[in-house]
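With this grant's support, we have settled on a layout for protein records. A representative record follows, to show the layout.
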Amino acid sequence: MCDFSLAAVKFRAAAVGDNLKVTDFGTGTRGFGPADGEKLAVCVLPGTEIAFDAPIRTYRIYENDQGALSSNVGIFRQVDKDKPHTHHDALELPDGTIVKLNDLAINQTATVLQLPAAPKTEKEAEDQTRLVVVG
């Protein structure tokens, strides 16, 4: 998925094996772009598994090690979908911690390990569609 504030940014869907980099798109939103620096957003579906090359870091100073978190893997989720005009894209870490993509430190690199299974219900298909907020 790509957050609502990336609607004006060129994008493509993620694929297994993609090398990604946390990017600031200049729209008030951070997300994933290609590690080669190409100026586009790489949109991932909820349930996509992502492995970072080092422990995940945030741009904010949290309690442990100047923003370093306890894991280098996460599963892409969307949170606060009932709240328009807020960032929805996030990673769920193995310990259950949720970190919004907008809180990640830029220039971290990661690899797409696995995409989610094909949706089995209409609700799953709806959850995997690109989020678009109008207005």
